[in-house]
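Example 5.3 — Hotdog fold thioesterase
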Amino acid sequence: MRIKRDDTELHYQYAEEIQAKLKRDTFAQWLGIELIEIGPGTATAEMTITENMLNAHGTAHGAALFAIADFVFAVACNSYGKTSVGLSVNIGYLAACQKGEKIKAIATEIKRNHRTSWYEVRVESEKDLVAHVSALSYRKNDYFVGGEEE
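Solution (predicted structure tokens):
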């Protein structure tokens, strides 16, 4: 017998386990990305722009901005404990940020169904909207929390 699971209930039931797993992202750790908040279909993280994250013009490299956006997207789409992977990400770079600036990325779920989910991510500096992201994920069958699969 297959058990139908409620994503939001699963998020709250396994919140600590979900957060612990998603915080183990070694690339995000290496970049100094700190997960600030995780909710059902949402995530917020912060990162300080370092010398190693600058491009040839002395401003934050687009890859650094993309990395924090991709991280919160991954956390938000996996926040229900169901394994989700990115299918498509579109990013628009809107403003430059400098060494030493703290940036924040906020992912918000726009729509979710059985197989896919869509997210908006805002990357903000202390003074400006730096990047805007639209992202699509594929929701696999397996859950990484809670034992029995759907």
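Remark. Strands lie at 34-39, 42-48, 82-93, 102-112, 116-124, 129-143.
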